[in-house]
Amino acid sequence: MASSTVTSSQPERPPRPNLAFRRLRGRRSPAEFAALVRRAAREIGERVSCDARYVGRVEAGEIRCPNYAYERVFLHMFPGRTLADLGFAPRSSVRGRAARTAPRALGAGGAERGAAAKAAEPQDQQNAQDPYDPHEAYDPQGPYPHDHPNHEESDVLRRAFMTGGGATVAAAALGPLGLAPDAVAAAVPPRRPGSTEAAALEEAVRRIRLLDDRHGADGLYRRAAAPLRAAYALLDAGATRQTTVDRLHAGAGELAISVGWLAHDSGRFDDARSHYAEALATARMTGDEGLEAHAFCNTAFLARDAGRPREAVRAAQAAQRAARPLGSDRLMSLLALREAGGWAGLADRTGCARALVRAQALFARGRSGADPEWMSFYGEAELEGLEAQCWSMLGDWRRASRHARRAADLQDPHFARNLALYTAELADDLAREGRPDEAAEAGMRVLSLLDEVQSSRIRTMLAGTARVLLPHRRTSGVSDFLDRHKALPRVAGA
Q1: Average pLDDT, the chain
Q2: Residue 325 to residues 32, 254, 289, 328, 474, Cα–Cα distance (Å)
Q3: What residue spans carry the Low complexity bias annotation (predicted)?
Q4: Please, which residues have CB within 8 angstroms of residue 376's CB and are 6 or more apart in sequence?
Q5: Which end of the chain has fewer CB atoms at under 10 Å, N or C?
Q6: Alpha helices per DSSP H over 133-287
Q7: Which of 255-264, 273-282, 399-408 tops mean pLDDT?
Q8: CA 478, CA 53: separation in Å to the nearest integer?
Q9: Which residues contact 206 (CB under 8 A, 6 or more apart)?
Q10: Which 8-state DSSP code applies to residue 5?
């Protein structure tokens, strides 16, 4: 029998500190080293959510072997070294660890349920599963089984499902995808929240952002309301340690911004405004300058889209005042672009051009450890795309289409939502520039992406392009685009 190969009574070896990894960190703080890890990940196209807590767990020996994503990042950071040189155990030695430790994690009264679940599994899953291998074990409820989840950091979320109490509420509402029923999400934790709940909240924010990057906002917005209510229930319950209180406030504020963006991108501007205001209030109460800058940044973008350009300029300038002490050139660059969008909406070409020059100069200074985690989307493609939007609002279609084409060419095709957005911008600019055949070709590329992207913003842009192209129906390719666009199914609530 498979169960005979593993006994839950076997004592677990205490973790041995990873001194080699600690030496590599040198005199940097764990947070500074985590920022270097995230930057190295971006350099090779990986997405890891490394923070000071993760670095501490590695150094304490709690993470004996990293998952494959972290392995690639560490070997990129320290070329010529092996995992053993970095103080990690061979991957084969950690296989089956989850199966051995799960019965203990279930806690009192849970052993029978763990044994029953184990007996129901295929034998090869019980013995061969590697909790550090993102290609072998994944949540069957998750729509993206080929993502590279951070299994070490997700240990916190898995334990939350198992141990009961307030952690159960938080994990049910916030993890792994934050799509819990409203009744559960609205429940108040029966005990004070701690670091487990704070980690679940932070993970929910990351997951919602990832899902939006991949597939757009329309299918996510209503489901994301549940974890947001749960986040504020955790705040109301009150944590004991100030560090946990700060994490919960920051996490709730970032989650409010993420949910606000889902509302924004799906055309629910009033809902978005409310969520951004909620995040701003949270930032002001706690003196969190980073959260305040983020809330004002998104408020500026919303104001521009809602036809309130003067408010967009004021919000972008307020964001810059809040962000200045943070020391992130990339953040200041993005905020200058938000200001440029407001000036463009006011038809102030000079003000827009000045803000664009400032944005480009700040962007050219490169990334730094001070860059907020939420800014991972802001690369050269986004810079080009936002500049294209500015020139488009000013009616300079030729310049707008040039930047939109660069944005589409630079965008990683893995993130379909942004690729569709930049290509839709290109199609519209080309149509208005008087190049209907090229516009139709770009529009067809967007239509081919709409099976996996749900964004009212993109659909609205495409509808505008179709109206501009109607007089050119006889032009090569335009008729096919118009017919296919007309056949698009309507999206409920869009």
Answers
A1: 75
A2: 17, 19, 8, 8, 56
A3: 113-122
A4: 38, 42, 47
A5: N
A6: 151-163, 166-174, 182-185, 195-215, 221-237, 242-265, 269-286
A7: 399-408
A8: 54
A9: 49
A10: G
Site of tokens 């849970």: 110
Enumerate the H helices of 45-179 as residue ranges: 52-59, 68-77, 97-105, 111-120, 123-128, 151-163, 166-174
- pLDDT tens for each residue of 152-178: 333 333 333 223 333 333 334 344 333
Q: Which residue has the higher pLDDT, 105 or 482?
A: 482
Q: Which residues, 6 or more positions from 339, have their beta carbon under 8 angstroms from its beta carbon?
A: 300, 312, 313, 316, 317, 320, 355
Q: Which amino acid is at 132?
A: Y
Domain 379-494: CATH class, spelled out: mainly alpha
Closest CA to 248 of 149, 174, 179: 174
Place of tokens 């199609």: 427
- Do 42 and 378 form a contact (C-beta atoms < 8 A)? no
For residue 165, what are its two tokens? 């109490």
Q: What is the pLDDT of residues 311-347, one digit of tens each?
A: 999 999 999 999 999 999 999 999 999 999 999 999 9
Output the furthest CA–CA distance in the chain (Å, rounded). Answer: 77
How do the domains of the chain map onto residue ranges? 2-99, 167-287, 379-494
Q: Rounded to whole angstroms, how far apart are CA atoms 56 and 406? A: 41
CA distances for 160 relative to 38, 106, 193, 405, angstroms: 26, 10, 11, 46
Residue 8 and residue 117: Cα distance in Å, rounded?
Answer: 14
Closest to 386 measured CA to CA, from 255, 280, 459, 297: 297
Burial class (CB in 10 A: 0-12, 13-18, 19+), 236: exposed
What CA–CA distance (Å, rounded) separates 180 from 166? 15
Tokens of 197: 């709940």
| pLDDT score for 268 | 84
